[in-house]
Amino acid sequence: MQILTKQELHNLAMNIVGEKLTKMGYEFQAINSQLKRHPQFVLFKKGEPTIFVLVKATNNLQNPNDYDSIWMETFLNHAKKQNAKVWFAGVGIANAESVENPVFKDQPYYVAFDDFVRVLE
Questions:
Q1: Percent of residues, the chain, with pLDDT higher than 90
Q2: Per residue in 30-67, pLDDT tens?
Q3: With helix as H, strand as E and coil as C, how does the chain read?
Q4: CB-based contact 65:117 (threshold 8 Å)
Q5: Cα separation of 119 and 95, whole Å?
Q6: How far, in Å, CA of 121 to CA of 50, rounded?
Q7: Closest Cα partner for 16 from 98, 93, 99, 101?
Q8: What are phi and psi of 94, to 5 degrees?
Q9: pLDDT for 104-114, tens place per residue?
Q10: Cα–Cα distance between 47 and 78 in angstroms, integer?
Q11: Domain of life here (predicted)?
Q12: Which of 6, 13, 83, 87 is 20 to 30 A from 58, alpha carbon to alpha carbon?
């Protein structure tokens, strides 16, 4: 069995978030799926301000929305200069048999993602 890499887990989280955003009626102005490049999504909806969406894949199913607040402050300064909103999407992804095990390709997994944390409105 092949373990998913950090980039593959990130891509999986991006797909989960992207599907939800599409259902919410957003259009993507830009998408960046590279690890540690932010924002992952730049959203557009007519009549609304631009929204930057930050996506983070984690194996923490209990608190997937935990983020580094010092890092976030830096990003918020950038967003304010662009007059953009900032949403954070923490996506918990874990092995379905045991959260202690890594997530394997083509094997069942759990996803913990309910909604976005609206960091800057």
A1: 88
A2: 999 999 888 999 998 889 999 999 999 999 999 999 99
A3: CCECCHHHHHHHHHHHHHHHHHHCCCEEEEECCCCCCCCCEEEECCCCCCEEEEEEEECCCCCCCCCCHHHHHHHHHHHHHCCCEEEEEEEEEEECCCCCCCCECCCCEEEECCCCEEEEC
A4: yes
A5: 29
A6: 10
A7: 93
A8: -145, 155
A9: 999 999 999 99
A10: 22
A11: Bacteria
A12: 83
Reading the block at residue 21, the tokens are 């955003």
Q: In whole angstroms, what is the distance from residue 98 CA to residue 19 CA?
A: 26
Residue 45 structure tokens: 């909806």
Q: What is the amino acid identity at position 20?
A: K
Give the residue carrying structure tokens 């631009």. Answer: 50
State the Cα angle at 37 between 32 and 38, rounded to 5°. Answer: 80
How many residues does the structure list for the chain? Answer: 121
